[in-house]
Amino acid sequence: MKHSIYKKLSFALALFGALSLFSCGGSSGGEEEEFEFKPSDLTNKYWYANPYRNQNFSTDDVLLVYKFNGNGDLVRQEFSGRRDNNEAGTWKLSEDNTLTINDKTIGNVREYTIDKSSSGTHLVLRGGVAVGNWDFYSDLTELKDFTADATIVKEVVLSNGSFVNKYRYDFEVKGEFISQAKVILESNSFELVKSANADDKVVWRLKEADAKKYFETFKGEELVKFYVKMNSGDEYKFEDRIENVDIEALNVESVKNPEHNTGTGPLSVTVEWKAIDNASAYYYVQILNSNKDENNPLVTSNWQPASNEDWQSIKLEEGNAGDFGLNLGDVFYVKVVAYLYEEGIEPYQGDIHDFNKQAKSQYIRSGGEW
What we know:
Keywords: Signal. The protein has helices spanning about 5-25, 130, 210, and strands at about 45-50, 65-70, 75-80, 85-95, 100-105, 110-115, 120-125, 135, 145-160, 160-175, 180-185, 190-195, 200-205, 220-230, 235-240, 260, 270-275, 280-290, 300, 305, 310-315, 330-340, 355-370. The chain is mainly beta and about 375 residues long. It has 3 domains: about 40-140, Lipocalin, CATH 2.40.128; about 145-240, Immunoglobulin-like (Sandwich); about 260-370, Sandwich (Immunoglobulin-like). It has an 8-stranded antiparallel β-sheet, with no helix packed on it.
């Protein structure tokens, strides 16, 4: 981790300490004050360590995030989806500044000496040859809004004159300070491109050609790694996991021809579709331009859970004429998306549901002329 600002700060603090020691008579035999790192200096915050080495899938160098709870419980966070494992293990701080971390997710107990250069925002751990040295920081401003999500998509596509179910990947990486983003799979990798979502926020997604690379069979559980380079030049690696959960496909018979009112004032579109056979499914609808540009939707509806009805519907309405970016006579498309959240995600609590989707099924059809 480059963190030049921390290095400069550490040097300044060290220099200040040396000058203070000299001015207080340190050179004339005064005793150096004993260093003690308190549990309260560790708790109630997340600590981040960046062991990044390269872009290889097999390299174990994803961002390491710990939280030391006051009761001795260790929390390890999957940073890409902000998901906490509250049962990751335990920790203990001894009076001699020895920090013992029992991380059950990696199956070992490690002991570190907390270096006296540590502070409330920079934790310097010395572990020797056996476990190495680590630098943890409690403030990573450039990653404050970062998220990354890997999703499997099931679609009905035309192949050799017949409609068949096929699968593809969908990836979304978000963050204000990203200069490059990449997806790394065990057997392949994809460069992501900058696009915009319906809220006009930057999202890194697959190129259109890569987004249409289908495969025949659901692969089940799969580990996905993300590489990002920030504007600062710092490089990080994160991971997400596609779970072994398939989804039913929406098809041409599932989505009715959209209805929309016409005129010179604000317009609306009503979209109806048949619910998939999964009570845990959620839905949203998008309006796309005449090129069916999925990376830059014109408008995206709010999400909604499945109702008890066989047919679901969403009505999208302009607040003012022209809000959707369509002129009278323009051809447009509608996209209906059914999706499942990752296990344990509660969409009505917090906001991490936005970037913890597991599987999607979608269908795009013409909406006619606006």
